[in-house]
# Entry
Amino acid sequence: MDRLPPPLPASAIIISPSGTVVGRFRPRTEPESAELVAAVEAQLPA
# Structure
């Protein structure tokens, strides 16, 4: 059986409804950080 490498920490990638990458955040970014929350909320429909 082949061994897989250990998983890397996941980055947060924000994708717009049209499929465009509009933001990338480092793995250590807190999920509730103002910057990350604002980026997600900016992509939600009005």
Notes: The chain is about 20% helix and 20% strand.
